[in-house]
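TOKENISE THE FOLD
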Amino acid sequence: MNFKQFQNIYSGQDWRSTWFTRQDWIKKEGSEYFSWIVPVTIAGAQSSIEIGQQFPRARKYLPLDFIEVMNNDVVNLTLIINNNEFLPVPAASIRPMAGNKLWQISVRNDDAAAPSTLNSIIVTLRRQPQTIDDWARRQP
């Protein structure tokens, strides 16, 4: 939702207080969980998503800052975050990562011959609630 749509919806109300209330709620509660089931990927290939396009409801929380890859397959993977950070995900493992701004993610099949299996690789994303440490770092 852009600013003009927001203003049209809340034009009769004090939209600034509504917006700030929503931002405070996001800081305290974080976002909902967004799950992506990675499609079948042939050996050496990768599957990619833009988070805002794949999950339209995630746009109000962008950038997300938590990712967990559950690899229940027999192939090793590489998680590529924003096309510049690489995280290996071995077969039959779960890899969480927090603290990075997530806009775009890719999952690459590192196996030489075997494709990945459908429903065996699940990526979970969310924006975490703000901790007291995060709050203290942002204070002047």
About this structure: The domain at 31-132 is CATH 2.60.120 (Jelly Rolls). The longest helix spans residues 15-29.
